[in-house]
Task: structure prediction
Amino acid sequence: MAKKLLEVKNLKQYFGASNNPIKAVDGISFDIYEGETLGLVGESGCGKSTTGRSIIRLYDITDGEILFNGKNIHASKSRKEMKAFNRDMQMIFQDPYASLNPRMTAGEIISEGFDIHGLYKDKKERQERIAELLEAVGLNREHANRYAHEFSGGQRQRIGIARALSLNPSFIIADEPISALDVSIQAQVVNLLKKLQKERNLTYLFIAHDLSMVKYISDRIAVMYRGKVVELGTSDEIYHHPIHPYTKSLLSAVPLPDPLTERIRQRIPYVHEESDNTATLHEVKPGHFVYGTESQITKWNK
Amino acid sequence: MRKKLLEVNNLKINFKTYAGIVQAVRGVNFDLYEGETLAIVGESGSGKSVTSNAIMKLIPQPPGIYAEGQILFDGKDIVPLTEKEMSKVRGNDIAMIFQDPMTALNPTMRVGKQITEVILKHKKVSSADAKARALKLLELVGIPMPEKRFRQYPHEFSGGMRQRVVIAIALAADPKLLIADEPTTALDVTIQAQILELMKDIQKKRNTSIIFITHDLGVVANVADRVAVMYAGQIVEYGTVNDIFYNPKHPYTWGLLGSMPDLKNDVKEALRTIPGSPPDLTQPPKGDAFAPRNEFALAIDYEMEPPMFQVSDTHFAKTWLLHPDAPKVEVPESISRRIEGYLKEAHENG
Result:
């Protein structure tokens, strides 16, 4: 059994006034095992990006616990501990245009973390490390001196990936890393992420709204709706045997490159059914969890 | 026999830039019948949006130049029309739905007025009639409580509802041709599915012709009757939706299909990718523009541009691989296996 790298326990992230908060993430729990990819899907506004940002401490969480390697990451810590944590967990952002500083060269962007963490102080060693990172993501060493605007969208996303890899993290949060790219470039980036995962034993939290790519890249998938994880299981299980009506509705809306299937496609509309406060995550099959009350689960499972 | 509504002949569009003349569209030919949907697919920079904007005559001149070709709408060439004449065609005959419903709507004007404005411009009706028509349109595009919604501003609508308003505006003057440029790209999948259903429903009711620009092959399979695949300013493959998805002939189309994961068969092998990037269209390469990225490229691809070869009555592809003397190259195995799977399942389902 693989080791649990990340444990999210009853995470709550509220925004706005405390008497009438916006419950962006409303009590979710899941684990991520070492070396796996967990896909987090849902519509815009369901809280998937907020979850990623809370995990990497871009927000102070409202309630709950996040354990990384068994340590609570939101507990107060010394500066030194924080730095060690920051090296171990990195993020890749959606927009390769907005996430790279236009005034810095690719080399400077990738090596910024070295300054912060006091690594590779020798100039030659540093150049070598930058070149190695650029080559790992399919660029070449000459690219180090170019500015972001000289690269295409796909190449920029590769720079974003090289930056995330620069401090040798074990866990990477990828927040919609491919949705701004063309289809053929999406495939290149997804192949690259899979290759890097194999070579470096990386663990990914892959956040996306495109179910087809998520199904392809993920070992397990968590489906979010209105701040809650409504279904969680292996990607094949979620795709072929969904139980929660929301997951069914979401899957029924994904168009496939197959005209004969598309001609007979029946979209399943989703009607939200309020659950009372007895609703929890039920394990309906080993490793397959569905959120709801006892009676809802029985009804859906038929 | 259905009537031909639109015919584009050898259309060439250039843009003057400091770096030189960009040949954005390089000799595009296609036609469109009444009540038919043509999907144009391709990567960014392939010329698909320039082609559709050219039909609306929305290419700013300068820097744009209609270098060559005709756009016959109902048999009449619209390329030489003046801006004044064209403003009658726009909205009335041809209307456009844009990608981003937030920027396509005026944030300071009530939604109702944005619809009646179009009706009053193109139809000789009283403002009361215009309002009645606008309410009908809101109902047609599936917006609940049209009376109330009529008086609201765009910010009071969700993304999907806003796109419905944009569609209502496009339909306001009963156009025969609707050009939709990535109309669902900014939307969630569930909302996307609803908008696609709506567009097909409207097409059925009004016999509207649709040009649908997208890079999502799943969406193409859902909406299109025919498909044109564009690369570097040219159509490289053209056929019915079944021709393109079940019998693709151009290596670029193979590349596009291969870069989508195969969901049904749980295949976890690496995705096929198209290496490299599209050519610089200020100096289009000699020969086949796709050759440098094509693993099946022949020597002739670097010398001479291939013609459109006819595969069947409906199916054409611009690749030397279809020449009788070319070596036999089959569809890559990962794609043919997927197609077989799809066809088998369709057969089983009747």
About this structure: Chain B is about 35% helix and 20% strand. The longest strand of chain B covers residues 4-17. Residues 94-174 of chain B form one domain. Chain B touches chain A through 47 residues (CB under 8 Å).
